[in-house]
Amino acid sequence: MPNRRSRLSLIVPLLVALVPLIGSIGCKKDPAPTPAAQADDKKVNLLIFSEYIPDDVLADFKKETGIEVAVAVMESNEQLLAKLAGGSNEFDVVSPSDYMVRRLAAQKLIQKFDRAKLSNFSNLDPTLLGKGFDTANEFSVPLFWGTTGIGYNKKKVTDPVNSWAILFDPKYKGKVAMLNDPREMVTSVLRRDGKEPNSKDPAILNAAIEVLKLQKKAVAPIYDVDGIYEKLAAGDVALAQGFNGQFYKEVVKKPEELGFIVPKEGATLWIDNLSIPTASTRVANAHKLVDFLMRPDVAARAADFAAYATPNRVGRSKVKKELLDNPIIYPPADVLKKCASMEDLGTEANKIMDRVTTEVNAD
């Protein structure tokens, strides 16, 4: 651009103004790189639940590809939604659970995979693909699956632990921990009462929230995510709602003291996935990381570390035998029959679910 502050002559501004035109006659310049192209460097930012991917796996990924993975921990699917809906473009791979995949895809917050770049997709178990939340697995690939249930201290609980009802018993006031997860909290009530766990009925959902509010008064539960398992192991709580793999890690240390059960009414069968946000600026790197994590040997190492069931059909044979044989991680068929995945409830029901955050587990 000519220097418009120069007034020394009429010729200099004219010549300067003509330079771009003269240059364009001789050659064609490449267009300026887009922000995405500039950012597609040797980095990838991963937002995922805690204790899912071991550091040595990510170190091997960097060794093979030169791409460094920066890991951020997410506490809930709702937190993930808030980050992406808020316009964040800092993440390149995220880990939404089943029902959240559909919500993110509907809001165009995650993008379709380029399947040609996922050479290891064929390693996945077909029985864990094509689920209702993403029937063609266009937006997600499964990473782990598991169940939600109740962990308990055998020495502190005097009643049989076989029903969600025990989490609402005032007898254990101050000794109950609940997941800081609106869907799981409400589902525990719906299961207890024999209701459809994916009910969209406003009356049923509002009634369940009122039960949780009563529980807060009568039972004074602790609301947490990762700290639940440590509190149970330390004896700070006697009963805790949580995820099977995390409980497994504590139960194997103190099998005479701690236990885990999927209640008789049934529970959540969840699938946590990998997806690429629409706003990612490192899409090529993101595909490389997702494909790497679907490699059989890598999937097995991640499963050994996280203590959750792997959806990797080929990699399963490489998982430690003590994990494969443990019914906490790989439940028998009769337990799985009682479990169901969460579905997206739709706009109106999701608004009702917001009451859990504002009225129940808010500080």
TrEMBL record:
<dbReference type="GO" id="GO:0019808">
    <property type="term" value="F:polyamine binding"/>
</dbReference>
<protein>
    <submittedName>
        <fullName>Spermidine/putrescine ABC transporter substrate-binding protein</fullName>
    </submittedName>
</protein>
<dbReference type="InterPro" id="IPR006059">
    <property type="entry name" value="SBP"/>
</dbReference>
<feature type="binding site">
    <location>
        <position position="51"/>
    </location>
    <ligand>
        <name>spermidine</name>
    </ligand>
</feature>
<dbReference type="Pfam" id="PF13416">
    <property type="entry name" value="SBP_bac_8"/>
</dbReference>
<keyword id="KW-0732">Signal</keyword>
<dbReference type="InterPro" id="IPR001188">
    <property type="entry name" value="Sperm_putr-bd"/>
</dbReference>
<keyword id="KW-0813">Transport</keyword>
<feature type="binding site">
    <location>
        <begin position="181"/>
        <end position="184"/>
    </location>
    <ligand>
        <name>spermidine</name>
    </ligand>
</feature>
<feature type="binding site">
    <location>
        <position position="99"/>
    </location>
    <ligand>
        <name>spermidine</name>
    </ligand>
</feature>
<keyword id="KW-0574">Periplasm</keyword>
<dbReference type="GO" id="GO:0015846">
    <property type="term" value="P:polyamine transport"/>
</dbReference>
<dbReference type="GO" id="GO:0042597">
    <property type="term" value="C:periplasmic space"/>
</dbReference>
